[in-house]
């Protein structure tokens, strides 16, 4: 037993740093990984949460410079639904499989209790699907289409006042499951002065309610400066447009009003370009954070199934030991239930035999006839 434990948990004798006397060739590993990644392509999944007509589709089209074909939704749905759309985009020799999931009917119901529940269930369902693939005997995670949500763009109505109760409830239910980036939809509908005050108010309410949002990482020297600056722009004031307007000699994405034109890609007009830049710059970090959220979900699910890394005596246990213990526990439970059924059956047999014996005794008793004159 001691030998098997030693084999399963080998002693760590430490890691030494050695110098090479000549070139080996493993310095080409990053190039191999790069070629493999480009060949396989990349995957990114975005969840857009917001009221009907707040500009979710227009923003997605503006962010990725394409037009997502999407049918308009109604305000009269009885419950919140989610609509997913997957497409492949190619820029130079890089392929991106993009999935955009949008809420339909969010905030349209009279009774808004548990409006967020279908969204929570959807995120959990993607975690569960990945867990099931991971636990398969024959699996192929490399070719598996990962549908776990990497980022949630939460659209806030441009009221200029404060967050709604439904916003706080939804954000609180999601901040432990997904990376949340708050955005103010149709930000061109309020003045710049009101917009800055609204941003401060939103961030203050998020902090006071203990809601965690995604912060662009500042520990990487290559992006720390721009990420630190951009974190100060949260929540992003975004404007999207499905149409292009001719300004000078160029056709640009813009929204045209009687008083002027709002250019989607003009950073002095809105933060749409900042959001695009940050999504592309920090895409891998968003995926890494998603893996951390998944690990939390996975741990909770496996613990519910009775899987533990530590045994009763605080000693590490292997998966084989856990399975064997569960099998033994199941067999003992089946034996106990089988014995219960046997005893119940014998009890009923004895009760039936007693009833038959009593009936026979009554049948064998002499019958006395009494005549009354």
TrEMBL record:
It comes from the Eukaryota. InterPro entries: G_SEPTIN_dom (IPR030379), P-loop_NTPase (IPR027417), Septin (IPR016491). Its main location: cytoplasm. Keywords: Coiled coil, Cytoplasm, Cytoskeleton, GTP-binding, Nucleotide-binding. Residues 40-304 form the Septin-type G domain. CDD domains: CDC_Septin. Pfam families: Septin. It is found in: Cytoplasm, Cytoskeleton. One of its GO terms (molecular function) is GTP binding. Belongs to the TRAFAC class TrmE-Era-EngA-EngB-Septin-like GTPase superfamily. Septin GTPase family. This is Septin. It comes from Cyanoderma ruficeps (rufous-capped babbler).
